[in-house]
Write a structure and sequence with these properties.
heterodimer; A: alpha+beta; Enolase-like, domain 1; two-stranded antiparallel sheet; about 25% helix; about 15% strand; B: two-stranded antiparallel sheet; ribonucleoprotein (chain A); Large ribosomal subunit protein eL28 (chain A); Ribosomal_eL28/Mak16 (chain A); structural constituent of ribosome (chain A)
Amino acid sequence: MSSEIAWAVTRNNSAYLLKKRNCPKPFSVDPFNLTNKNSFRYNGFLHKKAVAVAPTADKKGVTLTLKKSSRSYRPGQRYNRSDLKKGARVVLTTIRNTLNKQRYRKDLSKAALRRASALIRAQKPLPPRKGAKPVKKAD
Amino acid sequence: MSLSAARPVITVYGEKNEPSGTTCSLPAVYKAPIRPDIVSVIHHEIAKNHRQAYAVNQDSGHQTSAESWGTGRAVARIPRVRGGGTHRSGQGAYGNMCRGGHMFAPTKTWRRWHRKVNVAQKRYAMCSAIAATGVPALVMAKGHRIENIPEVPLVVSDKIQSYNKTKEAVILLRRLKAWSDIEQVYNTKRMRAGKGKMRNRRRVQKLGPLVIYANDQGLTRAFRNIPGVDTICVDNLNLLKLAPGGHVGRFCIWTESAFKKLDALYGTWRKASSEKKNWNLPQPKMAQTDLAKLLKSEEIRKVLRAPNKKIYKAVMKTNPLKNTRAMVQLNPYAVVQKKNAELLAAKRLREKAAVKAKKAGQKPAPQPNVKRAAALAKKGKAKKGKGKK
């Protein structure tokens, strides 16, 4: 069924929906959501083409996952994963090029870059605080 | 997703999660309109049908012969218990405000517990619910962990109908990668919040996959001890199981013969259902629901006018009296006028200065551009007398 219908069904109730007090716009827990906002554009599980950016298991870089649009009814086969570990600049360029040059959900490229850079930044060790004793990284 | 779209082919998977070689085409039910509103309403109505009556004892609060003392006794006029010798005598009785009286509107067993739902509505809801189990997005949104299953809808060969051992069933679910859904069931086992704990509803857990079979040769017994798994025969499909909670998109595992029966059960639009009297699939309101496709389609584009791509930038208004360019836009001769005025003013100033200088006995200041003018005049004469300012 088209993603519009799926959105109409799930916009107000779904396992990915997260509502919190004082937050008028709900969040989404979908791993294929780049901004964690519950909206039609960003909820990847609804669409044939979606992008996920997540930290790699060993916290060294970022995994970029794209949904293959041809295999939309075969959940086991429909992801293209690539681990990007080289370094922030390379990672970001790879992501940007993958999305823009392949014209794969170009509307998500900014969001993907933001998420990737936020993740990479979080993976860097915290700078030592001035004046205090060296603080252990709270991981 | 138009009605007459070619129906895709679904692979039947064997016990080891390899394609067993057979395929079936997707039954038309899966293209029925998905109407969560209808499913929700009908589900709630049908769910009322297996309620058990509850009521308060009809004698409660009436097992006294109390009578009101009337006025004049400095007490409220509520009926009071007769007799003496006990605390109870003289206490108020019968009213809902009295201790030991009946409640307000005592609940009765003849409350209308069950609901009659039109058959066509029930069937519509079923079709929607089945259609929704074929959309991976909706099944995932319901919370089932189907990231790794081979295909949606998941059809397995008929061999599982003769499973007898839970072990075999577990191995099957693991091989099909459906086990993560069952693990989720384990993870969500918890105690119910509230008084239900004391009312035999102590434990609560998520629902797992629904196994739908055509012929039970042991399958129910194999799957029944696995938490979260439900089994159901395709002839008795139940909305309460296919859309638990009124929400569409349960994870369903079909056996091959069950899957093949769906066309006969619910019909295809071309052919009415053979098992259900007078039933054919519901008509969708829109044949093509993909908005992106619609917007790009020829039929719609043909009727649209060309897009207005010109960007109109807001122009700030400038006062011509103060801004020379604005003035020149309105009156091109203004440039000349201004220049002439300038020159005239300069000339007059020079004449004044010359007079003053003469009076003071000094040489007057030289005219500006005199040299230049002379040089150009010479050039002009050389170019056959083209005059110069």
